[in-house]
Amino acid sequence: MGTEGSTVLSPLWRGLPPIDSSTDSTSASCTLPPCFEAVGSARQFTRATLDQWELGTLFDEVALVVSELVTNSMRYALPTDRMARFEGMAEMAGLGWVGGTEPLVRLHLMRWTSRLVCAVRDPSETGPGPAEGEADAGAECGRGLFLVESFSDAWGWHPLAGATHGKVVWALFRLPRGRD
Q1: Spatial CA neighbour of 66 closest among 87, 94, 85, 47
Q2: What CA–CA distance (Å, rounded) separates 128 from 4?
Q3: SS3 97
Q4: Of 59, 156, 175, 61, nearest to 116 (Cα)?
Q5: pLDDT (tens digit, 9 = 90+) per residue, 33-89?
Q6: What are the residues whose beta carbons fall under 8 Å from the beta carbon of 47, sequence distance 6 or more?
Q7: What are the Cα distances from residue 92, in Å, to 16, 59, 99, 144, 175?
Q8: Which residues lie closer than 8 Å to 31 by C-beta, 6 or more apart?
Q9: CA of 64: how far to CAs of 14, 40, 103, 106, in Å?
């Protein structure tokens, strides 16, 4: 992915201090099947990746945000016929969409010395936001983006450009000083 990050995520860097080109970066990603069981797989992938990067102490906050972003992709961005086809097939978690060449949902984790980014790519070009009638703070649904905003240092989204359709929703975490 390089020290400048993916070009898919280039809008994320606007307004942030530039990353020193000598800074090491690393990334990991996984494809998620179109079923709600994929949220648990995303959390497991996040735990394993953060542990490998020696950032396990950040798991609770990062996993909550990852869970919300993946849940929103599954709930609002995927065609319901594809969700129905995979619903209840937890053993498919971690595999790509087998009916096409492009995975429907991908989770990307990217780490630099001073920041960690979680990004979820999905096929919808509609930006995230509260659904009609979900603005009530006491409602069961509609609080996910509030949690993303509360637990991350910044978040946003942008449509994908070029031949790739869909969007990326991302959340940024500033890492504690002294971490490599």
Answers
A1: 47
A2: 25
A3: coil
A4: 175
A5: 888 889 999 999 999 999 999 999 999 999 999 999 999 999 888 766 554 444 444
A6: 56, 59, 63
A7: 38, 24, 13, 25, 33
A8: 94, 95, 96, 97, 103, 105, 106
A9: 25, 11, 23, 17
Going by the DSSP 8-state scheme, the letter that residue 75 receives in this structure is I
The answer for residues whose C-beta is within 8 angstroms of residue 72's C-beta and 6 or more apart is 120, 128, 144, 145, 169
Q: Measuring CA to CA, which residue among 38, 41, 47 is closest to residue 74?
A: 38
**Global confidence as pTM:** 0.74
For residues 83 and 75, give the distance between their C-alpha atoms in angstroms, rounded to a whole number.
Answer: 9
Mode of pairing for the β-strands spanning 154-159 and 105-112 = unpaired
Cβ atoms 30, 94 nearer than 8 A: yes
Q: What angle do CA 164, 165, 166 make, to 5 degrees?
A: 125
* pLDDT for residue 7: 46
CA distance 59 to 51: 8
Whether 51 contacts 67, CB under 8 Å: no
Tokens at 90, concatenated: 């937890």
What are the angstrom distances between the C-alpha of 3 and each of 7, 68, 75? 11, 27, 32
pLDDT one-digit tens code per residue, 39-52: 999 999 999 999 99
Q: Distances from the Cα of 175 to the Cαs of 17, 112, 134, in angstroms?
A: 14, 9, 32
